[in-house]
Amino acid sequence: MGTLWFCLATMVITGYVLLDGFDLGAGVVQLFVTRSERESGQVLSSIGPVWDGNEVWLLAAGGTLTFAFPVLYASAFSGFYLSLMIVLWLLILRGISIEFWPHVDSPLWRSFWSTVFGLASTALPILFGIALGNVVRGVPLDQSGYFFLPLWTNLSPTGEVGIIDWYTVLVGATSLLALAVRGSLWVVLKSAGSLQERTRSFGAKCWAVLVAVTLLMSGVSFSIQPNLIKQFRSHPWGLVFPALAVVGMIGMRVLSSRRQDLQAFSASGLHLVGMLTSVAFGVFPNVLLSNSAPDLSLTIYNSATAEHGLIVGLCWFIPGMALAIGYSVFVYRHFSCRVA
């Protein structure tokens, strides 16, 4: 049951990244591409019906981890407390900026909230990437399963580490670029005219940098976390996950250049699925690695809820996720047209 819930947690987190990822990326597009109030409104209109539903998946991911792996929840939320508070405030600022933007017909008002929306949407992928980098690199867990990390130390990913080091910043940059490309493809899909063409050009530039940064980040990850190499060597079938990422990365560029925008957007989703499942496969069966003493790592065996609880939880998880998926399908089908 622990393995099943590890897979379910990975699925829900991946679902959140796929859905909220493109509207985070749309915020990056608004910050760097839009040139007028009208274009900012178009970007906001493209995500307006769906952004709040997308964030439900973040709550679902947190709830899944809390229920299935309570020791992980207790350890991670105490060790990353400051980072989580920053994420919470950015989510709040982003939400109120979307809601406040149309309420006052003033250039100053709308310019201010557009900037808040763009900056929050840009900062969140970086912070999520930094968090993922910490999971891959490992944290200094003690025998009680807890840890403390300063925001940064000497920026080295070895020794006395902090939340921020050059490796976690590299993962954060990769996350930002990946979601910027996905957001660009979404805006291209939902817009027309000059905004669409400038966004397409912006996405192509981000994609070129993403390829280089992803290759660098992947190579560094294998050198920093030996468990990744161990997993892929002992279970070579797992190479299907990075293969998905490669196919998705190539596909979204080729398809976008051919103006097959819906297919390109789908390929970007395949790329994100491949990247996230590669990480999950690489760290399995760990849920939080210890970089000080590997034996102290939290795993699906020492951090999961009791077997009976996991079985009962599954009976609630299935209908709950079915409702969430059904709602998402309905909303996306209902608001599938381009924005004016």
Secondary structure topology:
Elements: H1 2-32, H2 37-47, H3 51-68, H4 70-79, H5 81-100, H6 107-137, H7 166-190, H8 193-224, H9 226-234, H10 240-257, H11 261-283, E1 286-288, E2 298-299, H12 307-334
Antiparallel strand pairs: 1-2
Helix pairs in contact: 1-2, 1-3, 1-6, 1-7, 1-11, 3-4, 3-12, 5-6, 6-7, 7-8, 7-11, 8-9, 9-11, 10-11
What would your notes on this structure say?
By secondary structure, this protein is mainly alpha-helical. The chain has helices spanning 2-32, 37-47, 51-68, 70-79, 81-100, 107-137, 166-190, 193-224, 226-234, 240-257, 261-283, 307-334, and strands spanning 286-288, 298-299. Helices cover 75% and strands 1% of the residues.
Poorly predicted sequence stretches spanning 5 or more consecutive residues: none
Oligomer: single chain
How much β-strand is present in the residues?
under 5%
Record field, number of beta strands: 2
Overall radius of gyration: 20 Å
**Helical residues, percent:** over 70%
Instruction: Name the average pLDDT.
Output: 91
Largest sheet: 2 strands, antiparallel
Shape: globular
Q: Please give the count of helices.
A: 12
Q: State the order of secondary-structure elements, H for helix, E for strand.
A: HHHHHHHHHHHEEH
* Overall SS class: mainly alpha
Distance between the termini: 48 Å
Adjacency order of strands in the biggest sheet: 1-2
